[in-house]
Amino acid sequence: MTEALGTLPPLARSSVMARLGDWLEPHPHGIYVAPADAWIDPSEPEARALVTHGHADHARGGHGAVWATPETLAIMDARYGEQAGHPVAYGESIRMGEVEVGYVPAGHVLGSAQIVLDYRGERVVVSGDYKRRPDPTCTPFQPVACDVFVTEATFALPVFRHPDTGDEIDKLIARLHANPDRCVLVGAYALGKAQRVIAELRERGHDAPIYIHGALQRLCDLYADHGVRLGELLPVADARKADMAGHVVMCPPGALNDRWSRRLPDPITAMASGWMRVRQRARQKNVELPLILSDHADWDELTDTLTEIAPKEVWVTHGREEALVHWCEQRQMKARALALVGFEDEDD
User: Fold this and answer.
1) pLDDT per position in the chain (348 positions), as tens?
2) 186-219 burial, b if ≥16 CB within 10 A, otherwise e?
3) Exposure string (b/e) for 97-127, b if CB count within 10 Å is 16 or more?
4) Residues paired with 45 in a beta bridge
5) CA neighbours closer than 13 Å in the CB half-sphere of residue 240
6) Using an 8 Å Cβ cutoff, are 113 and 128 in contact?
7) Which residues lie below 8 Å from residue 225, measured CB to CB, with a gap of 6+?
8) CB burial string 270-284: b at 16+ within 10 A, e below
């Protein structure tokens, strides 16, 4: 199914449809797919949930049944307890009522997927969160031709143009080498960002042990179990202060200025996030080394994706909806904002 989804032209408009996608019902807490009697990424418990990925603003516990990739289900099991899960692999399709449902890679975090819905001659792609640049921890985004494309807009302003990933990692390594008596303490979200920073360091040849906060252990182990090369990770709790000098230490963002960090050797505080482009945010968090590293598409990636896919309509959610809708309208591309509930800071 994967190749077919990527190469098919936009599907023909059915004459019985009054409006594109009128079989989808956007609500503040999710998108209801009426002919499948299922919800996409509902933030409240529902009987049937189609989940794009494991971040808390898209996945939660308490659903009657969950359809997601095997990796996303494993993440949900780890975070919320065992789910009534139905795994759907990339390229696989299932039938729910009259709707054919498929999952293709979104390039956001491990197991992240776009949900492809085919119903009566229309195709809608709900992309969830996505990015277009390479990431050693997850399968790259796959563009899918469609009639309606539902896109995020977390960084949908022209000011957000993420720098080269390798350059940001090189900044981290250079600061580490320049301060052998100190450590570099990197704040990174526990799901996706922490593992990506570690994997990117390995890609740049940093093979030394990396020390991690206990809150990162479970998901790092999960990533390693799914074949992501993270190298030697050591718990901070078992280390002496002197042992960590000259090393990278990883922690959740909330631990950067916590009492926990006092056990570290004069840490240089860093944070990996697309929001580090905004200097005020770095200052507010007392970040000495901002690392602009995002798991979301930046402005160019968003607009290039819409140009490439060229859907008949664009539905925009989670972020700067107005700016992206305006960009679409300037190019005679029909667009509207969905105003779904989201927690954009948590996963970046």
Assistant:
1) 544 455 445 444 444 446 899 999 999 899 999 999 999 999 999 999 999 999 999 999 999 999 999 999 999 999 999 999 999 999 999 999 999 999 999 999 999 999 999 999 999 999 999 999 999 999 999 999 999 999 999 999 999 999 999 999 999 999 999 999 999 999 999 999 999 999 999 999 999 999 999 999 999 999 999 999 999 999 999 999 999 999 999 999 999 988 999 999 999 999 999 999 998 888 888 899 999 999 999 999 999 999 999 999 999 997 889 999 999 999 999 999 997 765 555 546
2) bbbbbbbbbbbbbbbbbeeebeeebbbbeebeeb
3) eebbbbbbbbbbbbbbbbbbbbbeebbbbbb
4) none
5) 2
6) yes
7) none
8) bbbbbbbbeeeebee
First to last CA, the chain: 31
DSSP 102-140: EEEE-SSSTT-EEEEEEETTEEEEE--S---S--TTSPP
Question: The sheet that has 30-33: what strands, in order across it?
Answer: 24-27, 30-33, 38-40, 48-50, 65-68, 85-87
Written as six digits, the tokens of 309 are 């896919």
d(C-alpha 262, C-alpha 265), whole Å: 8
Residue type, 232: E
In sequence order, the 6+-apart residues with CB closer than 8 A to the CB of 22 are none
H-helix or E-strand spanning residue 38: strand 38-40
Q: What tokens does 282 get?
A: 């770095």
